[in-house]
């Protein structure tokens, strides 16, 4: 070994993909960074100074080189790349490494993404956004991304082979926003039929994504065949055995070829032939049999047969195949009948490995979801992330990796950056030191006020998941949730957010040039105003219970004013704007009808979800606090409700809320005449059509935040509610909302 720490073995030149990343990220350093690929080295990277003021990066894979570049840019050049605000100002000259850096990655597998991410966040992305995300994954050491873009073309080709018509197949395929749940066997035909141009464009996009991921040396996980077919398939092949689900979240049952039937292997062979012909393969196939389905009719022997049959079918089609399965609603009988070395389990909610005492000793990846449906929340137990990874490494020798499986991205950036860094170091990091480094690179300089703000956040906010926002809850006098499977958090009180917001705003003169800082100011302000909304709603309820119509109306007007002010605040950041989401959707349309169709999918996903005619219990699952959505959807609903209750009070009548029917803890969509009227508004809203024009520019974030803080901070004294600190949470320790468990669990 040389004195500089680099191997004597000859190095290979860095691949073009790395050079192109330099051009995109730091072109001024293009001739000052030397990269060497050393496949014989352990997984990781080395950094050192080189002659001529150059920086040398060495790594065993292209992803390791990218992780080394990220380390250098973050720790030496002060650059920060984030989902939510970049800081890319480089020093004129590359700062020296000074002391050589060597990092080894103890966990070889570092997957990323969840099927749901492709619906809640990625559905409308075009290539430039995908290119950035692949860069981001490489820089953060991700080497096993899930890849499902364009898979609908494989279903089309496979089903055509078995005699179905193109029209039958397009009707079977769901709308773009809902395809991920079709791939997980939860539903089909929802918000469709899928337009043919979408299939063509996304086949090409999927190929481009995979080509770039493989250029980085990543091993993408492709969807395998899990048996899901149209009802028409069952009519064509009546001798085949089928399993019909009991229906998922109000959707009609789906038809699945019994995995133990010989027809499964026949269809699987065609599916994999089409899949690998179109996209190539790295031999990892994601298959979740009976995902989130009750299996009362399937005996243990039948489940064991399914495990054997699917494994045999996979290996017959690809002798190197590895079955990748979510440890979410896994069945032990299936797992135990998969050959050794041919299964990889993804513990996406970070609880199954511990709960089962090791998941039968099969290779497992630790993971976290945390971001459900794109809910705009901050929070989460930061300390638990590195601790859980480190503890599970020590306890379970079958732990093979760690990764992130968010349902959505573009939110809560500190938590996911900690996940990526913890995966790379196997959880061996000091959280306090890590947070200090995070603030330095995100904000660009130190600020005593910002440090104090984050002390408050670490004490009061980043210790547990946040609850649902009151603004997004379907209006009621005593709601306890917005999302059917989550709920309000009693610790979400204004005194847990306003002090940190005040301190963060104090840092504006020093940190205002950082886009990440500006995002954080708005995101924290949104959370503070949302928490204040709970106080105002409580005042409305008290006035109703006292039968005081005048006071109820005053409290209701204050609540609506706050909601609209929160909407205005969020208009200052593109990440929180509904018009951007809709414009991205409409851009895929080849004409007015297609544009309107994609907009309908975009609106439906973030509001009623589905089924279209009876969207219970899924409505409001996303509960996003977004500019435009707050004002024109949630705000209109609350205004209608307050008018209704005011009228009942003035007439001397009771709303009788306690007697209304409920579904999953919430008042039914059409529980009485008022709620039927409300639902008519909701259905009309999702069918609205926007004009084709660029989204309005964002106003200045800091000016908007100061106005809202100065307006609402003095009002807190009028709504005294004691802050609750470290009183415990009614949420489970795992990364799963209450109500997500067992065969009936719902992963959205």
Q: What is the structure about, briefly put?
A:
The chain is of the alpha/beta class.
Unreliable stretches covering 5 or more consecutive residues:
1-8, 722-748
**Share of residues in strands:** 5-15%
Structural class: alpha/beta
Q: Please, what is the average pLDDT?
A: 93
Cα(first) to Cα(last) distance is 51 Å
- The total of beta strands comes to 18
What's the main sheet like?
6 strands, parallel
Radius of gyration: 26 Å
What is the overall silhouette? Answer: globular
Strand numbers in spatial order across the main sheet: 8-12-13-14-15-16
Number of helices: 26
**Which bin fits the share of residues in helices?**
40-55%
Give the assembly state of these chains.
single chain
Helix-strand blueprint:
Blueprint: E1 12-13, H1 16-25, E2 33-37, E3 44-50, E4 54-59, H2 62-75, E5 101-104, E6 111-112, H3 117-120, H4 127-139, E7 144-145, H5 152-161, H6 166-172, H7 179-183, H8 196-215, E8 222-223, E9 228-229, H9 231-236, E10 242-244, E11 255-257, H10 262-279, E12 284-286, H11 300-317, E13 322-326, H12 332-335, E14 343-347, H13 352-355, E15 364-368, H14 384-395, E16 399-404, H15 413-425, H16 431-443, H17 448-460, H18 498-506, H19 508-511, H20 515-545, H21 549-570, H22 578-586, H23 592-606, H24 629-650, E17 662-663, E18 666-667, H25 673-686, H26 701-712
Parallel strand pairs: 2-4, 6-7, 8-12, 12-13, 13-14, 14-15, 15-16
Antiparallel strand pairs: 1-2, 3-4, 3-5, 9-11, 10-11, 17-18
Helix pairs in contact: 4-8, 5-10, 10-11, 17-18, 18-20, 18-26, 20-21, 20-26, 21-24, 21-26, 22-23, 24-25
